[in-house]
Amino acid sequence: xxxxxxxxxxxxxxxxxxxxxxxxxxxxxxxxxxxxxxxxxxxxxxxxxxxxxxxxxxxxxxxxxxxxxxxxxxxxxxxxxxxxxxxxxxxxxxxxxxxxxxxxxxxxxxxxxxxxxxxxxxxxxxxxxxxxxxxxxxxxxxxxxxxxxxxxxxxxxxxxxxxxxxxxxxxxxxxxxxxxxxxxxxxxxxxxxxxxxxxxxxxxxxxxxxxxxxxxxxxxxxxxxxxxxxxxxxxxxxxxxxxxxxxxxxxxxxxxxxxxxxxxxxxxxxxxxxxxxxxxxxxxxxxxxxxxxxxxxxxxxxxxxxxxxxxxxxxxxxxxxxxxxxxxxxxxxxxxxxxxxxxxxxxxxxxxxxxxxxxxxxxxxxxxxxxxxxxxxxxxxxxxxxxxxxxxxxxxxxxxxxxxxxxxxxxxxxxxxxxxxxxxxxxxxxxxxxxxxxxxxxxxxxxxxxxxxxxxxxxxxxxxxxxxxxxxxxxxxxxxxxxxxxxxxxxxxxxxxxxxxxxxxxxxxxxxxxxxxxxxxxxxxxxxxxxxxxxxxxxxxxxxxxxxxxxxxxxxxxxxx
Length: 561
What we know:
- It is built from 18 helices and eight strands.
- It is mostly helical.
- Strands 1-3-2 form a three-stranded mixed beta sheet, with no helix packed on it.
- Helix 4 runs antiparallel to helix 11, helix 10 runs antiparallel to helix 14 and helix 12 (about 290-310) packs antiparallel against helix 14.
- It is found in: Cell membrane.
């Protein structure tokens, strides 16, 4: 509002006494704080309900698909599931980018609008509007789940294909007799279907008794444990990036919140989707065995790590901020600060930045620059605010309202290109690593193993990672705003520290994932070597690796025949 801008101007100390930091205003009352806590409690409850509602899709949907899909189709179906799941965040970032262009109080806007633009650091977008749209979409998408059967017949079209092949090649089949090969094809399928059927429905008491034993057996599985740890590292990286990458782009490259969200939704998320689908197709088409899946995961993690190295150098140092990054003799344009503002009485908690374009120096408020007048330049689509008669600015101004633009804004697209390419390579490991778990644990433990995996991902990655990233980012703050006598929001960061610590944490988690995949590959090689030795001793000349997506399985009788 106009009176807000007027309050930021330089006012003589003889007319206005020096401000005091006493938090005596009404916004600091205990009643207001109680209201804020109630709102936070509502958001926590909403997040809990989101987590509960997602369980039927992941993890239970993963086991549901793998139980009833054919072995060779399961990786592709899971890859499609993961890819479609990633489409949600991509659409949400795009939707959020559009919503953030609207001011938060869209229902209480004054006539003629407000004199703020989306580039102003005080701008708050309509963050709440996307939740209403998404909640309605989720409610509609949940309706078809009521019509799914408890069990579905397992896919058998590939079995029929192999029967046709055998009909052409084997004369006993053409004579109408059951060949040993057909029987061997049919027996594993019937056995697999039987495992699904004979699983008893446990009561709650029985489940509680069985759960510790199954949990211990699952956690003692080395491949399962290492795959989960690698996914914990990857998920920690993704959680930190999903939470703070928009903020990082805003601060490092001086882009708006809506543009940052659109970049992530338009580049990073589609790249991750492509990586997930390609990973599932590679497992299906190439019939990758455990060792080759481990090698694929290792290569994806390695190249993702290498692409992180240039990110350490893509950015600019913090621009000059009067009274914060002031080092006498080092910053041109600030030699006379703060004496230049003379007899101005400036509010301590005010924040209305302006930028001196000639020296690229930013001031917290027009009062800090000694400005005494305000000029509004009207345009067709928006109005631009300028401040004049500024005693700290060479020539007196006018200077535009808002923070100074970054000198590295042109690097935002190359930065996002490398981040997106790294996301695609990291996502390439998603489906192969899941197949290592689904084919590595016992069939009756599969659902519980996937559930344990998702629980560990939530507890070890998605919960602590945003806290770790947020704490690291807070250590790079150079100026904290005060609210009610306490530290509130960070106004300015040290850009070099912010970049090194944010990208450094991403690099750390990628290194952990790479180390886990290297150990997985080493264990799989050792197991494969032991299996080859056993097979060579029992059946000379036979060395074969069981693929994760298998076609027809052969029985020992076939080899003897």
